[in-house]
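Narrative of activities, Objective 1.

The group set out to show that a structural description can be obtained from nothing but a protein's sequence at a throughput compatible with the screening campaign. Below is one input-output pair from the validation batch, recorded exactly as produced.
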Amino acid sequence: MNDLMAIQQGIFRGLQSCSLFNTFNIVLARDFLATAEVKMSAIWQTPGPTGQQGVGLLVEIPSVRWPNPNGLQRQRVFSVCIYEERNINFTAASGNFGGGTFQICEDVADQLLDFLWNWRLWRASGLIPETTAIVPDRSHEGIIGMKVSVYVRQERTQPARAATPTIAVDDDNNVTLTVADGSAIYYTTDGFSYPSPKTDGTLSGEQAAILYAAPFMASANTIIMAAAFQEGLLPSQTAVAEIS
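Output recorded for this entry:
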């Protein structure tokens, strides 16, 4: 299981296990959104463990933010939305209706932030509140909504890629492609088409890529692009050379 899912599920199960939130229906967005028949209103209309209705919590699918485009650190953002239907929420119990929670959305959001603040989950250094940790959620007409967001910092390791090919051209315009790790090399000569095993020439203006097998001769003003591919690794960076 990856970190994103483990932390999301940890937040979901932690909320379900905390007595402070027993009056609320708590939904895991990954499961909820996969069920097309379920309406959003089910979040606040479905009773919580104590049988009360009117407020529901939705643990959102996490997102990833990259604070420094050239850095290795990324931030995984986790949000919980609180939705309150005022009429249901402030109606006393009657008959089979267990009554509303009588807890306002804003207070629940504040409790939720305390619950998440600096909580350590699945190799996380602790959940950190966003600068604006609680914001209104106006995504549903007639429903009071709040969103609580926290994040974890994680250092991203450089992904393993196939080695970048080297393009060598001699005085007679003979082209030799080599790669240090023995990966398969594909190349194109139109200066436009990406050199990959799946580049088959069927897209508009595309040239089919060629699997490199031996040195070849190129004409003047040709732009050679080459990339290497190996099972289990990301593609290499693209090497480019222009034949003069």
